[in-house]
């Protein structure tokens, strides 16, 4: 069934708008409307009960103009080609905004991993890696985690690729467990980047995170870390949610007490009653806060609920959580949005640091990783802010303009082959 909001069409609409602001001609950037390569694979898996099931998977390489392709792998029942294409294109833009030497890619399997046993999940992962093997490699295309994929799964990816090569190749994937070449600081990096962006935005407005009221949608890798770090910087996290629903407390949720529950169960569903009220995801998105962090999936804020959003600032932890129509509504209402390609870039920045460490067979200290992340995000934030001011445009336009300058500039220098 086609999606109500096609994320790839969303990407192209934003791209056109930013290109127009920059005064680019179609010839300069038309190439960015098409992914370089799309590989669709069928994945037959022997289930534990002896049946064979066939799953659909994708690897899309959007651009390699600025370096090897880079992007995560998503396991979700709604994965389709347009979603993976959009996620790949956003990776191209994201790597360019933070100025790391990568292009963009993404992968996905249409599966609800919660319905699979661990053995089935491992067989599915290894089969997928075998099927996309011709495309990936430390110099070509480097996968990483995304929704429902974990460091353990990254370890299986590294092992499957290495078995085919006959020697250990840690640089083929990032987000790995530390023991097999993962980087210190990687698992918190995306949430840390979100927190850095929220802090920098507050600074620009003459405020701090201290006492800011925050709601976070999605308590996964990104949202749970962002909630904990923002809480650590003095913000009051009044609402959080996951796919099962949310909780709200006017005086702020005890994030430190709640975190072990998510870490162990990965859901809010079985959380015992406490000093909070239960709310729906829709209520979370419209609650009265300073900062809203959508950190679940695409298109959660659309034109139907954008008029009811009461947050003054939105920091996009997720990729594509706001549709273009909703973006216009929020912009007109004076809501400042730090866009996904900047706000959630912390993950790919530390993935880049992990890859550099792997290529050099060297280990960085965690403080060094976090410090480099902080500097990289701060530089990118400043550039985006300055471009947005210069063109009197939103931060999303600022980020896309910053990215487009780099990607189009690289393409121009390389030329079109042959
Ligand atoms: P995750 O699988 O760890 O967590 C996803 C969370 O979203 C879970 O808590 C889940 O319950 C919740 N969720 C799912 N559907 C929901 C719904 N309909 N309503 C409310 N909550 C829902 O995934 P993640 O890695 O934290 O990724 C979240 C988002 O951040 C995605 O858009 C992803 O592409 C993006 N992102 C992730 C990374 C990373 O390093 N993991 C980096 C950049 C961007």
Task: Report what the structure shows.
By secondary structure, the protein is of the alpha/beta class. It contains 14 helices and 13 strands. Strands 10-9-8-7-11-12-13 form a seven-stranded mixed beta sheet, sandwiched between helices. α3 (81-97) packs across α14, α4 (118-132) packs across α5 (151-165) and α7 (221-232) packs antiparallel against α8. The two termini are 39 Å apart. Nicotinamide-adenine-dinucleotide binds at residues 145-148, 190, 217-223, 241-243, 281, 295-297, 317-319, 344, 347.
Q: How many DSSP H or I helices?
A: 14
Strand order of the largest sheet: 10-9-8-7-11-12-13
Average pLDDT number: 96
Return Rg in Å.
20 Å
Give the biggest sheet: 7 strands, mixed
Ions, cofactors and other ligands present here are: nicotinamide-adenine-dinucleotide
The helical percent reads 40-55%
- Which spans have pLDDT < 50 for at least 5 consecutive residues? none
Structural class: alpha/beta
Strand content: 15-25%
Q: Which descriptor suits the 3D outline?
A: globular
By DSSP, the count of extended strands is: 13
Give a brief description.
45% of the residues lie in helices and 16% in strands. The site of nicotinamide-adenine-dinucleotide has 24 residues, from helix 7 and strand 8.
